[in-house]
Design goal:
Number of strands: 10
Oligomer: single chain
Shape: globular
Structural class: alpha/beta
Bound molecules: D-xylose, magnesium ion
Helix content: 40-55%
Distance between the termini: 33 Å
Radius of gyration: 20 Å
Number of helices: 11
Strand order of the largest sheet: 3-2-1-10-9
């Protein structure tokens, strides 16, 4: 088996993570699969072989009935589960949202699914359950009462937190993943700032349990700077998980390989993570493009991993005292030049 990619001198967990959905059959909104779909559990050896340490999955991919089998398979491969997440977006009943649906029955199902995800995460020994905002939002104004929808989110997450605290205290943390649009035109919990506001409105007894899972592309789609989003999470003590990828401008969510579009900013992000001593899992949320053939499906993981390891090493070469001096001298352009020298120079 291939050696695992590790980040040198990283605090805490230094292996890399990837989702089982990252190596899908190549569907997009305009066309069906271009590759034979690989059964989910058969994706685990591919992920392990690509040098990844932590796999991630939705409940729609590894349902509660399959978690024991998934755990056994992963154990054999030396893979760990880094994160588990309920899908609030795939099932037709969630077409107008899950926790924010106008139908109280659907809201109840969402909370039940979330609790089941906590149970599954316990079996898989995943440290984090993530809630991506998915279809929580609206395409038409006044289709939902926004203030009411926000209260539903608070209420739903409070219920999940209460359950997680009773069932899995000290073992599992919960993280919300913001995204501004896609699949909805407008999504609730669009940005890191909104998620932090949500956490501030939760029952004080549960606020510690909740953090953020910021994703590169999601910040960039919103026209925001991902590095600042991550710094904001760090400042709040809420950086619970990370989804890295690349995004080529403000368009649909591309899930491109990490390090591809903005390597200098990616290196700067790693400087911040190194300085903060971030000890959680760094995972990729990338997507094998539909143009890649089945035999090359893992390229998306190995390219992202290699770029990350290289950029992590480059980030260690950034002399923090030089940065500090240039900041004091108010030489912003020189800082850009110094980062370029660390990235491109010899
Ligand atoms: C989609 C999200 C999703 C979450 C997990 O844009 O990134 O893949 O990470 O549901
Ligand atoms: Mg993601």
């Amino acid at each position: 088996m291939k050696e695992r990619y590790l980040l040198r001198d990283k605090k805490g967990k230094n292996g890399l993570g990837a989702g089982v959905w990252n190596i899908g059959p190549g569907t997009d909104p305009f066309g069906g699969p271009t590759r034979e779909p690989i059964p989910i559990l058969d994706r685990l050896p591919i992920i392990a072989e690509a040098g990844i340490t932590y796999f991630e999955a939705h409940d729609s991919e590894i349902p509660i009935t399959d978690v024991e089998a998934a755990k056994a398979r992963a154990d054999k491969l030396g893979l760990k589960c880094g994160m588990y997440t309920p899908s609030f977006f795939a099932e037709p009943i969630f077409k107008d949202g899950a926790m924010t649906s106008n139908d109280p029955e659907i809201r109840k199902i969402a909370v039940q699914n979330a609790k089941r995800a906590v149970d599954a995460a316990l079996v898989l020994e995943a440290p984090t359950v993530v809630f991506w905002n998915g279809r929580e939002g609206f395409d038409f104004v006044l289709a939902k009462n926004g203030q009411e929808a926000f209260k539903r989110l608070v209420d739903g997450f409070d219920q999940v937190a209460q359950y997680a605290k009773e069932r899995a205290a000290g073992k599992i943390r919960l993280a919300v993943e913001p995204k501004p649009n896609e699949p909805r035109a407008n999504m609730y919990l669009a940005t890191v700032g909104e998620v932090l506001y949500l956490i501030s409105r939760l029952d004080p007894a549960y606020r510690d349990l909740f953090g953020v899972n910021p994703e590169t592309a999601h910040s960039r789609i919103a026209g925001l700077d991902y590095l600042w989003d991550v710094e904001l999470c760090l400042e709040a003590g809420k950086l619970f998980h990370i989804h890295l990828n690349s995004q080529d401008g403000q368009r649909y969510d591309q899930d491109l390989p990490f390090g591809y579009t903005e390597p200098l900013k990616d290196m700067a992000l790693l400087v911040v993570l190194q300085n903060a001593g971030y000890d959680g899992i760094i995972a990729f949320d990338v997507k094998a493009p539909r143009t890649d053939s089945p035999e090359n499906i893992a390229d998306i993981l190995t390219v992202s991993s290699r770029n990350l390891v290289w950029l992590w090493e480059k980030a260690w070469t950034v002399d923090r005292s030089i940065l500090e001096r240039l900041r004091k001298e108010n030489r912003n352009t020189a800082i850009a030049g110094y980062l370029g020298q660390c990235l491109f120079g010899h």
